[in-house]
């Protein structure tokens, strides 16, 4: 995990129409990977090193919207008819985001860069987001309103990941929903934690109408894992040393055919078992 040198908090961000479907296996909360996407977008907008941002989302409120979205209309034999759509799960969220952007020295520049940004597809509604520099240790949480930080799990046995095979999905389900929950079980949730690449980026064919001319477009499958929600008032956070504090942040880590949002998920002893099939 890179050292945190330029740490800021983006306070009380409000966003609507946020996508709460993380992937094929997890829904109900904004994906931690969506915050990494926002961090990378800010880094590129500020002309900083791409993929250098690290983030720690803090959820203050998440409200799922009810009902279906308006279906699209399709022209069939000169008659427009609605196309049946799947139920969307979107909602409004209030979050704060701890973000480390190496090379960013200005709170004002970061605040300006947030103009027009989105979180998981939902447009940020604030006219102005308050940005403040922080000390990179557990004291950073003491000035933040009540909420839950979304972290990789502390316990090694909870760092199992799955690409969708039955055995690894069953393992994750057994961890999330044990027959009996012991004292101190905590609040753990299924989460999108990365991608399994189906193509080699160096040899993937060039494709038209992609978002970037410089970044190769490759097909990938979602990777499911477990995240932990911890209160910002919990001593596990407020008393973190600078080293432990830095290790709690999400940051892209690419190894072989896996692109994960935190290096902790590579450390689980069943990693090779759930990825060797492809």
Strand content: 25-35%
Helical run tally: 6
- Terminal Cα separation, in Å? 28 Å
Order of helices and strands: EHEEEEHEEEEHEEHHEEH
Shape: globular
* Mean model confidence by pLDDT: 88
- Helix-residue proportion: 10-25%
Please give the largest β-sheet: 9 strands, antiparallel
Oligomer: single chain
Strand order of the largest sheet: 8-1-5-2-9-11-10-13-12
Please compute the radius of gyration using only Cα atoms. 20 Å
Number of separate strands: 13
Class derived from helix and strand content: alpha+beta
What do you see in this structure?
It is globular, with a radius of gyration of 20 Å. It is built from six helices and 13 strands. The relative contact order is 0.21. It is 17% helix and 30% strand. Pfam families: Cas_Csy2. It comes from Neokomagataea tanensis NBRC 106556. InterPro entries: CRISPR-assoc_prot_Csy2 (IPR013398). This is CRISPR-associated protein Csy2.
């Amino acid at each position: 995990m890179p050292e945190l040198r330029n740490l800021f908090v983006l306070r009380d961000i409000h966003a609507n129409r946020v996508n709460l479907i993380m992937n094929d296996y997890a829904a109900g909360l904004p994906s931690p990977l969506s915050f990494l996407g926002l961090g990378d977008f800010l880094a590129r907008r500020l002309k900083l090193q791409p993929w250098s941002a690290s983030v720690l989302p803090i959820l203050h409120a998440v409200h799922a919207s009810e009902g279906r979205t308006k279906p699209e209309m399709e022209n069939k034999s000169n008659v427009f008819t609605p196309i049946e759509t799947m139920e969307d799960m979107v909602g409004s969220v209030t979050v704060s985001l701890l973000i480390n952007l190496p090379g960013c020295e200005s709170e004002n520049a970061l605040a300006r860069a947030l103009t027009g940004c989105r979180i998981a597809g939902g447009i940020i509604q604030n006219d102005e987001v308050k940005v403040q520099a922080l000390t990179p240790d557990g004291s950073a949480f003491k000035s933040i309103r009540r909420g839950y930080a979304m972290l990789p799990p502390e316990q090694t046995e909870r760092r199992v990941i799955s690409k969708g095979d039955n055995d690894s999905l069953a393992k994750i389900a057994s961890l999330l929903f044990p027959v009996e929950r012991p004292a101190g079980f905590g609040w753990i949730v299924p989460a999108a934690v990365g991608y399994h690449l189906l193509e080699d980026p160096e040899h993937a064919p060039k494709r038209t109408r992609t978002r970037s001319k410089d970044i190769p477009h490759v097909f990938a499958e979602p990777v499911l894992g477990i995240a932990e929600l911890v209160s910002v008032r919990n001593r596990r956070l407020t008393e973190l040393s600078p080293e432990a504090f830095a290790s709690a942040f999400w940051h892209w880590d690419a190894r072989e055919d896996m692109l994960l949002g935190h290096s902790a998920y590579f450390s689980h002893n069943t990693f090779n078992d759930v990825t060797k099939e492809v």
